[in-house]
Amino acid sequence: MNEQTVILRKVLESLDVLHAKVESMDRRLDAVQGEVVALRQEVHDLRKDMDDMRRDMDDMRKEMDDMRKDMDNMRRDMDARLTALHESVIHVERKVEAGYVGTLELSVRVRTLERRVDGVENDLSRIQVKAG
Q1: Which keywords belong to this entry (predicted)?
Q2: Could you tell me the pTM of the whole model?
Q3: Based on the number of CB atoms within 10 Å of its own CB, is 29 exposed (0-12), middle (13-18) or buried (19 or more)?
Q4: Nearest of 111, 92, 116 to residue 102 by alpha carbon
């Protein structure tokens, strides 16, 4: 073998080694690109999940606001009922003190007031459970 053939063979072997390294790097690059695509998809999915969660949170906030409004309305209603009940009790007490109410009429009114008190207490219990 002459010297040029040996040099040429070594150059060809070096080229084969370089070609193998390039192919190896191409495979690694393809793998990394595949990972990048998968990670981008995962980021996309996570962003979508976050958007869904934000929408759910907004819906929950709206529901909470509605519940607060309902609670405020119920409290106002309860206050009005309790005020009316208190005024009725005062009115009955005044009549009793003045002697205008007979015992039968008084017991009927007392039962009526007791039922109203029970109704108000039940409403109050429901409000407290909802406020829970």
Answers
A1: Coiled coil
A2: 0.49
A3: exposed
A4: 92
